[in-house]
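Dear colleague,

Thank you for sharing your sequence with our group. We've completed the structure prediction you requested, and as agreed, I am returning the results in plain text so they can be pasted directly into your records. Please verify that the sequence below matches your submission; if there's any discrepancy, let me know and we will rerun it promptly.
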Amino acid sequence: MQDISRRNALILGAGLTGAMLTRRAAAQAAAQPLLTRPIPHSGERLPVVGLGTANNFGAGERADLRKVLESLVGGGAKLIDTASSYGAAEAVIGDLVAEAKLRDRVFLATKVRAEDAANGNDEFRQSRQKLRTDKVDLLQLHNVSKAGQSLGYLRDWKAQGLCRYVGVTSTFPRDFPALEAVIKREKPDFVQVNYSLGDREVEARLLPAAADAGAAVLTALPFGRNSLFRAVRGKEPPEWAKEFDAASWAQFFLKYLIGNPAVTAVIPGTTKAEHMLDNLGAGRGRLPDPAQRRAMVQLFESLN
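Please find the predicted structure tokens below.
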């Protein structure tokens, strides 16, 4: 669904075919490096655009999905975010990363739902098996919903070398107070939340809490479950988007997020290599300043 709506927005708006988009994105990749930002707790730099795999990634054609991963890495990025609850995504990623010999070039992030080690050991072990790796780069406690939840057992696994970073996630606003409490107390390495031009609730409290905790921030659902592309269907990006090098609506939407210094990386999902290349373009060139970001909000709100 995401790719279909996105394609319609491109064709009916700017009039770009997938092939034209791929050529433009490839030219961008050759011309400019991908922006990186530091993970606060370590200083390790992470490219600002990655790949999310929640929306049926594991159900796509293997050849197409391999091209997505190769486009990600070939374009200078590395972050792949998945979860044990994302259907076949972990197993497909593990197979394709192994086949393409990309393990040393990707940053693998996954998630567990269990709230304690006793219930989480099997889940995490199975995730590593599916991903074909002895350790992951980031392990996140998925969908935090209770203020008292602890990251102690994830940190034990980190100490054992089974993951390099630990984090927390939520995409449910009803759970944001609990997530905020956990962030403030546990000070995780990473926080993952839903954030888009059309869904800015996290700007008020969660992003400041993450910054105060020294946590890197990953933004899930940066296209608002496709609602952003539906809002601009048949329209072209404004001329002033060129001032911060946004060549498509996808880049416009992603640059709004990357323009917030609290954001470490955006993780849009796709099963199309040309869309992966287009997304990577958001991490190149200039970013919108605060005044331009306000204008982006005003434009989007005027469409609704």
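Summary note from our side: The two ends are 21 Å apart (CA to CA).

Kind regards,
the structure core
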